[in-house]
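Support reply, case 0932

Customer input (verbatim):
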Amino acid sequence: MVNRCTRLFTLLFFCAASLSAQKYTTQVFDPDIRTLQIYLGQDELQDPIIRMGADDSVTISFDQMSHNFRDYSYSLQLCNADWTPSDLLEIEYLQGFNQNKINDNSNISFNTTFDYTNYKFQIPNNDVKPLLSGNYVVKIYETDSPEKVVMTACFSIDENLVGIDGRVTGSTIDGVNTMYQQLNFTIDYTRIPINDPKQDLKILVRQNGRLDNQVFGIDPTYITPNSLHYEDNRSLIFEGGNEFQQIDFSHIRNFSGKIERIAFFSPYYHVETLPGSGDEYTPYQFSLDVNGRFKVHGQDIWSESEIDYSVVHFTFPRSEPFLDGSVYVAGYFNYNLLNNNNKMRYSFDRNQYELDVVLKNGGYNYQYLFLPAGQTNASPTRVGGSHWQTENDYKIYVYYRPYAGRHDRLIGIQTVNSVTN
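Our regenerated output:
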């Protein structure tokens, strides 16, 4: 009996530990939900980062693919620097109520081939207001089933207490002006007293919003009074990749980018993109992009509710499939995740990788990535080349938790562009 109780306790302990270690990302769990967006204010191209004390808000929008109204609610969860749940109580980081309905802000589509109902709301609002800086996840669920989360949307609140000065160079430990970019930066914490900066600060770096190759928890190269220096750190060497591919199908005739044609095959419009191409020898090609982001819009329409959806067909010709990994079409449209929603399948009949995705009409950036089997860090090199000249955004997050502190404050964010730095 004692052994059985011991085993049961151990099982419950590890289950609880597993749940507490969950890391949140922006993603959708319900196949009937599409185009989940979270952005600053009214600008779909701006990351959802609120400045502490400013009159900012983040907008959350999504479509439920029918005209059957559903009653949705949401709650907020404060997270640690690594996006695991914080141990703080709701009353410590929220003002107001933490279970709120969003059904008052819904619009039904019309004149579209795909039926959908759009839901949109902002945070903070009259019902709830976050009180602390840091990472937050919005859990959205059907009101009658709060235990079943259908999507999560992540945003951050920044105190802006440290200065971050960064630069990107083609000179790395692995050579000069090759396929890699080196990120170097300095953190100036003159405005906030930090007793042990090496232990109290946590750093997160993301390239173009990607999650698979993000860097977390790096140590400074050296420390001077009131500043930390991250120089020639091997963990901050990134493949430069190539510029993002672009398509804009906001109009069935006036389209642009890598689109071969748009055709109507009842009951939907189909967007056929130009075949992807490239390998590690692909030369660098400049293109003015938005580093993986997308914007929903439509031409010659009167209302947002008239923006339709299309079936977008991606192809990547190859005489035979890769035997040591998989190919993905990646970008913000899939929340920078690598999963079955954007994994390409190889067709032996047509000798190409293929992916069909239903996307809301607008302009999209995307890139092809190769993920080696058994790994989590994808590479653009084998399916598009990699170059030190490529224009990329590197976003640096600085979190602070002093000794005996109970949550990770976000005290600084800076975006470093590889061309304009």
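We compared this against your earlier run and they match. Two observations from our side: The longest strand covers residues 362-372. The chain has three domains: 2-158, 163-240+391-417, 245-383. Please reopen the case if you see a mismatch on your end.
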